[in-house]
């Protein structure tokens, strides 16, 4: 804070001369000479100096015209204005009261701007200050993010060259082309097997059945829920017969998984070298590859995925579907006969990912559930549901999804599953009304926290499917908002997408390919306070980046395998979340969903789910009925049911702005130009009790924008 201790005129002059270094002091000097009272000055002269410290956090990819829209605001104290490319304030919103988010240690105000329904790019202003100019409203909002997230699996393919016609500047030679892998003694066997294809698991080049399981399930369920949408959608990958692109990509990994089944039906745990490779491209990794371990969890996970794949691929390739189902039955039988073959830790001499498991009951539940759904054989049917979102170490939540969405097959268990889903989803909805307006709680910031956010969004979509209640859809969109920029780090966590995104992920191909930009579409692990990678650079570790807050403990450095690595089981729920939201808004819905779940890409109405304390100045209020537009279309309606006290009529608006309402189109949202707006309670520069401050609405702020009274 700047304090002026005034004893006489000469001291005042000395002070003014001193502060002229910072404030172009001759105008201040003139004010002091005239009676030591500072008269009101234009904000352009003051606020440019005071630089209010307010920050707006947004989804940096964009918002759908007809969807709920929200940003998070920190350190602001006035209405938020949304300004279009013509310089017009088209919407002004009063933020909600601030609430504390303990994950970041911030007091946050949420700003609902759902009535901003015209496609375009906007600036966000508070008190005339531009907080950001990258807020986008557009149709097919997340299609490109989805395509990038799912295409990343192509970039992770083992055993094949990535050609420039598909991979662009990230083309590379094939890696790990020798299919012969030695059976490690931990398998209980000796010799070799042929094993190729599949996806590299993460930033390294290992392939793991357990993590492939939950990943492949998530992508298979996306296709099964929206088959007609994904039959048509393409993203430039090599064709696999007549298969849709999504099924072609998944099959590349299924083919590898099938190679990991032993003759007795058991399934090997992983295919890796003995240790992690150096920072080299796949083709340069000449480490010897081993088949390591054989586990009950791997067998049941494999059985679940193959049973699911069987029913999904059957319309395209009956022979392949039969092969998958036979493999599923064999693996399940082996798991039942070997219930305690647990992979508790890596064997001596092995240091690659362990994916340990001491209780395979959740994998057995999922396997039995999928086999029953596919075959109708009641001997596979099992009781059990869960209220917890799944991750690779507990997949009972996936079985809960399946039971809730196959009500005719599961009866009472289906009702129980639905209640578990809705109970957890309601907690998520409540969380998302406070703090940053996201589903994440402080305890959710674990290793791979971004996948937690994505999986929470997937859970919420299932609640939406089975109820049609918009609160669940809205909270799911908020989960995606968080991942794409509405977070305290003010960044999109997806490489290549957003105003600010990760540049140095812990991902060997992106590090070693001599291309400046990382491969696009990767979801990095995200903030978490564990600091497992903090250490010396000699150990390929990072300087301490922890902040004391869970939601900001992150660093965009290649050394950070604890916050900046990538993984297939993290990208899969991102792909599901973005892909499902796009499919819903293209007019598709799962066949088990209640009515009215499918949406259309049309502007928002003022439904109870989209109420806003906003003031809108439209030229007209149009009907909300519209045909489904293309991505280049503009809004067919503007905000409706606006309070009469908040509306500026077209004639009065036009006289203020000097712009004809007809020049804006018949359905445009309209408001006066910012520089002509005369607001009540205009901020004023004040000097009192030997202190210089800004006064606005009875509140006082120092010249940095911090509240002092």
Topology overview:
Blueprint: H1 9-23, H2 26-33, H3 43-50, E1 55-57, E2 70-74, E3 80-83, E4 89-93, E5 99-101, E6 106-112, E7 120-126, E8 129-137, H4 143-155, H5 164-167, E9 180-183, E10 192-194, E11 207-208, H6 209-225, H7 227-232, H8 245-259, E12 268-272, E13 290-294, H9 296-313, H10 318-337, H11 361-375, H12 396-404, H13 407-431, H14 449-467, H15 470-483, H16 508-512, H17 568-585, E14 614-616, H18 650-657, E15 684-688, E16 691-696, E17 699-701
Parallel strand pairs: 9-13
Antiparallel strand pairs: 1-2, 2-6, 3-4, 3-7, 4-14, 5-6, 7-8, 9-10, 11-12, 12-13, 15-16, 16-17
Helix pairs in contact: 1-2, 4-17, 6-8, 6-9, 6-17, 9-10, 9-11, 10-11, 11-12, 12-13, 13-14, 13-15, 14-15, 14-17
What does this structure look like?
- With 709 residues, this protein is of the alpha+beta class.
- It is built from 18 helices and 17 strands.
- It has helices at 9-23, 26-33, 43-50, 143-155, 164-167, 209-225, 227-232, 245-259, 296-313, 318-337, 361-375, 396-404, 407-431, 449-467, 470-483, 508-512, 568-585, 650-657; strands at 55-57, 70-74, 80-83, 89-93, 99-101, 106-112, 120-126, 129-137, 180-183, 192-194, 207-208, 268-272, 290-294, 614-616, 684-688, 691-696, 699-701.
- Strands 8-7-3-4-14 form a five-stranded antiparallel β-sheet, with no helix packed on it. A five-stranded mixed β-sheet has the order 10-9-13-12-11. A four-stranded antiparallel β-sheet has the order 1-2-6-5, with no helix packed on it.
- Helix 1 runs antiparallel to helix 2, helix 6 runs parallel beside helix 9 and helix 11 packs parallel to helix 12.
- The chain is globular, with a radius of gyration of 29 Å.
- Mean pLDDT is 84; it is low at 1-51 and 603-682.
């Amino acid at each position: 804070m700047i304090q002026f201790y005034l004893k006489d005129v000469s001291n005042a002059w000395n002070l003014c001369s001193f502060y002229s270094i910072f404030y172009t002091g001759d105008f201040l000097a003139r004010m002091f000479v005239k009676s030591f009272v500072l008269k009101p000055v234009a904000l352009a002269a003051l606020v440019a100096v005071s630089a209010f410290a307010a920050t707006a956090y947004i989804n940096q990819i964009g918002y759908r015209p007809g969807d709920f829209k929200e940003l998070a605001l920190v350190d602001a104290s006035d209405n938020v204005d949304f300004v279009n490319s013509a310089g017009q304030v088209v919407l002004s919103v009063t933020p909600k009261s601030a609430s504390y988010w303990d994950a970041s240690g911030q007091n946050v105000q949420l700003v609902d701007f759902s009535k901003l329904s015209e496609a375009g790019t906007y600036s966000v202003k508070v008190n005339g200050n531009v907080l950001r100019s990258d807020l986008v409203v557009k149709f097919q909002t997340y299609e490109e993010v989805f395509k990038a997230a799912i295409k990343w699996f192509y970039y992770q393919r083992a055993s094949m060259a990535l050609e420039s016609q598909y991979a662009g500047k990230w083309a590379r030679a094939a890696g790990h082309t020798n299919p012969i892998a030695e059976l490690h003694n931990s398998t209980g066997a000796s010799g070799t097997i042929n094993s190729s294809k599949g996806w590299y698991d993460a930033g390294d080049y290992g392939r793991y059945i357990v993590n492939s399981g939950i990943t492949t399930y998530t992508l298979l369920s996306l296709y099964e829920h929206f088959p007609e949408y994904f039959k048509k959608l393409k993203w430039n990958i090599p064709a696999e017969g007549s298969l849709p692109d999504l099924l072609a990509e998944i099959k590349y990994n299924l083919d590898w998984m099938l190679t990991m089944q032993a003759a007795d039906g058991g399934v090997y745990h992983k295919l890796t070298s003995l240790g992690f490779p150096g920072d080299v491209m796949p083709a340069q990794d000449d480490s010897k590859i081993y088949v390591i371990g054989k586990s009950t969890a791997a067998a049941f996970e494999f059985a679940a995925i193959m049973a699911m794949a069987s029913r999904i691929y059957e319309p395209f390739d009956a022979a392949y579907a039969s092969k998958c189902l036979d493999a599923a039955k064999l693996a399940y039988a082996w798991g039942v006969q070997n219930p305690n073959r647990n992979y508790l830790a890596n064997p001596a001499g092995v240091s690659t990912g362990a994916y340990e498991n001491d209780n395979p009951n959740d994998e057995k539940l999922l396997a039995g559930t999928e086999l029953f759904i596919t075959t109708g054989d009641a001997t596979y049917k099992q009781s059990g549901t869960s209220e917890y979102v799944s991750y690779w170490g507990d997949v009972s939540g996936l079985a809960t999804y399946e039971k809730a969405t196959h009500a005719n097959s599961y009866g009472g268990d289906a009702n129980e599953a639905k209640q578990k889903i809705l109970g957890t989803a309601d907690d998520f909805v409540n969380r998302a009304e406070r703090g940053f307006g996201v589903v994440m709680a402080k305890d959710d910031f674990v290793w791979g926290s971004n996948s937690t956010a994505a999986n929470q969004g997937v859970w919420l979509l299932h609640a939406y499917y089975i109820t049609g209640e918009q609160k669940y859809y809205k909270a799911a969109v908020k989960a995606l908002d968080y991942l794409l920029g509405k977070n305290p780090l003010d960044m999109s966590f997806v490489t290549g997408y957003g105003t600010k995104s990760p540049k140095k992920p812990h991902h060997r191909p992106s590090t070693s390919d001599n291309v400046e930009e990382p491969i696009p579409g990767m979801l990095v692990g995200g903030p978490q306070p564990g600091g497992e990678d903090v250490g010396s650079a000699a150990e390929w570790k990072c300087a301490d980046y922890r902040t004391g807050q869970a939601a900001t403990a992150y660093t965009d450095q290649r050394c950070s395998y604890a916050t900046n690595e990538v993984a297939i089981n993290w990208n899969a729920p991102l792909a599901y979340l973005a892909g499902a939201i796009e499919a819903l808004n293209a007019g598709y819905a799962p066949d088990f969903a209640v009515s009215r779940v499918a949406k259309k890409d049309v502007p928002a109405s003022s439904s109870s789910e989209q109420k806003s304390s906003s003031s809108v100045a439209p030229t007209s209020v149009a009907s909300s009925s519209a045909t489904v537009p293309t991505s280049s279309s503009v809004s067919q309606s503007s905000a409706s049911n606006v309070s009469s006290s908040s509306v500026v009529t077209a004639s009065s608006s036009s006289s203020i702005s000097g712009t004809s309402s007809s020049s804006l189109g018949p359905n445009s949202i309209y408001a006066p130009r910012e520089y002509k707006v005369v607001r009540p309670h205009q901020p004023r520069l004040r000097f009192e009790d030997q202190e210089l401050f800004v006064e606005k609405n009875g509140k006082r702020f120092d010249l940095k924008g911090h509240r002092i009274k």
